[in-house]
Amino acid sequence: MVQEIASQPRKFCFNELRLATRNFRREDLLGMGGFGPVYKGWINESGTPPVKPGTGLAVAVKILNRYGVQGHREWLAEVHFLRNLHHQNLVKLVGYCMEGHQRLIVYEFMARGSLENHLFRSMVLPWCTRIRIALGAAQGLAYLHEEAQKPVIYRDFKASNILLDADYNAKLSDFGLARDGPEGDQTHVSTRVMGTYGYAAPEYVMTGHLTMKSDVYSFGVVLLEILSGRKAMDKSQRMGEHNLVSWAKPYLGDKHHFWRIIDTRLRGKFSKKGALKCTEIASLCLRKNPKLRPQMSEIVEMLMRLPSTSEFRDADDNSKDKHVAGNLYSPTGPNASPSSYTLSNKQKGKRPVRS
Ligand SMILES: Nc1ncnc2c1ncn2[C@@H]1O[C@H](COP(=O)(O)OP(=O)(O)OP(=O)(O)O)[C@@H](O)[C@H]1O
Ligand SMILES: [Mg+2]
Question: Which residues does the annotated region (Disordered) include (predicted)?
Fold first, then answer.
């Protein structure tokens, strides 16, 4: 029987989550973030651990191990935002636990893990899947900025915070750094600079002034990662290519050279028009002046108008790529060999700028 997530998040006691994760079994560790480890677990519809382990509703249980005021604040922000925000491109909050000094969060289980795990590993994501993920993530941000009851700035938009379900639907997770957007006459929110190097907008890093357009900049960086299969910061790249944005900027929207950005592992299997348009979108998002960056809803529209959008269904099936064959592009000519690069999983290429 397929079990559904209850509409209201449940308050768990620590022992329930210990049983749900089979005592935080090492084999069920899904990943390790700055907040703490994330384990796979199972619960019944009633919220209690299933009698038979490994049955019921699969969940992801995140344990806070960054004690202190900052850790608690992030835990609280995450629970607060996720319980009030509901959209198909945001991860669902199943529940939380606050018992003594223990702080845990229970999410819906996302079968394919994070976009980061897919983009920079040996398995190659097909073009259509990449665009579908970019679109889903853009819709999630557009909801936060423009559709939620109170606008929300996400502040930590990056590949590791975009999770994928079994069908590669993208959902944003990690609301620990999210902030309410400016209200009334305010143009920005003043904050301590928090986020991740390589993704944070330069004006935010310099001034601490946070706007929706800071998220738009980060979206531009992730879009570049999706197009190129390169990390925002990657010391394993050649000198001068460590910073993805600085390296890619000269090629963005340039119809003769944009292909240099596109992941060589796609072996030319991408829509030429679509790829060029995507580099134009990235260029708009990465504009120095935040006011000149588009709104997320405009980006959603641009992504939806890309060629072959109708082929996005079943995109995880590589064979579906043949549908865009009419637009497939393989660079030719004297400069045709896109620069080669190595991808290293060890180098995460990201450093928190948390202060
Ligand atoms: N709901 C979930 N379903 C499945 N896997 C998840 C889920 N939430 C997190 N994970 C896995 O756990 C990993 C760690 O997640 P977490 O958000 O704690 O850290 P991070 O995003 O890698 O780093 P940071 O702390 O800088 O945000 C993710 O990369 C992902 O692989
Ligand atoms: Mg995260």
Answer: 311-355
Domain that holds residue 63: 14-108
Say yes or no: CB of residue 162 within 6 Å of ligand 1.
no
Ligand 1, atom nearest to 350 Cα: 26
Output the residue whose Cα is nearest ligand 1's atom 13.
Answer: 31
Do 18 and 106 contact (CB within 8 A), yes or no? no
Per-residue model confidence as pLDDT tens for the chain (355 residues) = 456 666 789 999 999 999 999 999 999 999 998 889 999 999 987 666 666 666 789 999 999 986 667 788 889 999 999 999 999 999 999 999 999 889 999 999 999 999 999 999 878 999 999 999 999 999 999 999 999 999 999 999 999 999 999 999 999 999 988 888 887 777 788 777 777 889 999 999 999 999 999 999 999 999 999 999 999 999 898 888 899 999 999 999 999 999 999 999 999 999 999 999 999 999 999 999 999 999 999 999 999 999 755 444 433 334 343 333 333 343 333 333 332 222 223 333 333 453 2
Is 165 a residue of the active site? no
Residue found under tokens 């005592």: 23
167-181 burial, b for 16+ CB within 10 Å, e for fewer?
ebebbbbbbbbbbeb
Residue that has been written with the tokens 């590669």 in this structure: 168
Q: Ligand 1 center to residue 190 CA distance, Å? A: 27
Residue 103 shares a structural domain with residue 124: no
φ, ψ of residue 148 to 5 degrees: the values are -65, 155
Ligand 1 close to Cβ of residue 31 (< 6 A): yes
Residue 203 lies in a domain: yes
The CB of 38 under 6 Å from ligand 1? The reply is: yes
Amino acid at 25: R
Q: Indicate whether 46 belongs to any domain.
A: yes
CATH of the domain at 90: 3.30.200.20
Looking at the structure, do residues 178 and 161 belong to the same domain, yes or no?
Answer: yes
Q: Are residues 272 and 123 in the same domain?
A: yes
pTM of the model: 0.86
